[in-house]
Amino acid sequence: MSSSFREALESGKFVVTAEAGPPKGTDISTLLHDLDLMKGKVDAINVTDNQSAVMRICSLAICKIVLDKGMEPILQMTCRDRNRIGLQSDLLGADVLGIKNVLCMTGDHVLAGDHKGAKPVYDVESVQLLKVVDGLNTGKDMSGNELKGSTHFFQGAVVTPEATPPEPQMLKFQKKVAAGARFFQTQAIYDIDKFKEFMAFARKFPVKVLAGLVILKSAGMANFLNANVPGIRVPQELIDEIRGAEKGKALETGMNIAARHIRRLKEEKICDGVHIMAIGMEDKVPVIMEKAGLL
Amino acid sequence: MIITKKKDRKKLLESMGRYNRFFLLGCSECATLCGTGGQPEIEELKTELEAAGKTVTGGFVAKTGCQALGTKVELKQFKEALDQTDCVIVMSCGAGTQSAVEIFPEKAVYPSNDSLFLGNMTRLQMFDERCSLCGECVLDLTGGVCPVTACPKGILNGPCGGTKDGHCEISAEIPCAWVRIYDRMNKLGRLEEFGQTTLAAKDWSASIKPRKLNVREQKDKKSGGEEKKK
Question: From CA B201, how far away is CA B157, in angstroms rounded?
């Protein structure tokens, strides 16, 4: 059976993916609850891989839980914690568990996380990992050895449209396409006009692009993102919009902004879908989708 | 050169607590330039040891501390002082310390420094790491800027999403290696190559430790061959 996420993208449907962050610890009750809320609404769930280099449940295990719920997982794989043997081994394992989608990333540095003394691996990086997946799909491992049964992945990558400077980032995007990326999920974008410029470039390549959205909870959060997260730029007018909201309505305003952006991205056919990163507010994903007219 | 920094003095003295008579061995090369193993540092450590009630039987700045044979010859003049010593403190790098272990198989040898990296001297006593000694140089493909070293993730194919205003996500003090490489390739008129070349994963077997190199054997074979021809 092929990836239902891939089929949705190829059908021309405006696709929605959301993120599920595995917890730190074995209590997955909240995660299960959030998955139930999103089931039947989103096309696929990205399961993050020790995001921000903070140690949590592995992506592979939670992807299996997503599958068991009858949902479609996207396995996020970073190169920070495993060498080429570990990565390939986990990819083969993911395939036999029925995981069809993989998102290849280099991964946040260990210094960003909660085990700063850890040895960063980076034996390979995102572009090379895409090639590895392509190789496994055609029955060969990284050393050229024949596999007894190949993998069946629909592989994707990430891109930061607002990177500064943008030129080297765009060349890397091209390298990822050449290395076999079939779809892209972007870093959070807030300036749709600017994103349209990126898409004018990205549309030259045979890949699907999902715009990344992070819900703004407050003006403070927007300022924090601007100051601390590379590649994210929240325009001042959006910050003012949230600041100007009635008391207690900041989050709702943030959700309205996300819904408005989704509507525009869909109506103007700017990209192929959206990737909603709710970061701890997964229960709000269906609300935003409803506001955006997707449900 | 090999960049070293002085170990915490209090810990150093504690770690050598069981010994009483020391010989201090510096190095005229890297350690002198780093300010960790020249004549002034020998004097300084001597004073500190004596203040702690220890005896310093002698001290010497070897020409090249990582060269055991030459250092051994240089040290012959200090035979008496060395005979009276129960511990040699080596004030150079880990390589120098292990040369001393070779020279003094029966004596305790302690390092006074931590060895950090292969460094370029940017200004007096200021050093940058630019080469990781990976065993498989890619500088020809990256405009002469090493991504294995200059990028904290060692990425070989372009910047990660963490570039901000041309700087690294882990520190605004680190310029993004791939922005530097992009600028260099641009100046060299080789941007097209930058976009089209995907560097394969490195062969890390070139840096499996411990590494050894014997250039002499190859030369011996070569000259032997020439002699035969004659």
Answer: 10
Residue B101: CATH number of its domain: 3.40.50.2300
- Asked if A37 contacts A68 with a C-beta cutoff of 8 angstroms, the reply is no
CATH 3.40.50.2000 fits A4-288, yes or no: no
Number of domains present in the structure of chain B: 2
CA distance B177 to B156: 10
pLDDT single digits (tens) A275-291: 999 988 999 999 999 99
**Contact criterion met (CB below 8 Å) for A205 and A176:** no
Query: Cβ of B218 under 8 Å from any chain A Cβ?
Result: no
| Residue ranges for chain B with pLDDT beneath 70 | 218-230
> pLDDT tens-digit profile of B16-75?
999 999 999 999 999 999 999 999 999 999 999 999 999 999 999 999 999 999 999 999
What's phi and psi for A123, nearest 5 deg? -65, -40
With tokens 């051994």, the residue in question is B72
Give A 99-158 residues with CB within 8 A of chain B. Answer: 106-109, 111-112, 120, 122-128, 131, 142, 158
Domain boundaries of chain A, sorted by first residue: 4-288
Q: Which residues of B touch A142 (CB under 8 A)?
A: 201
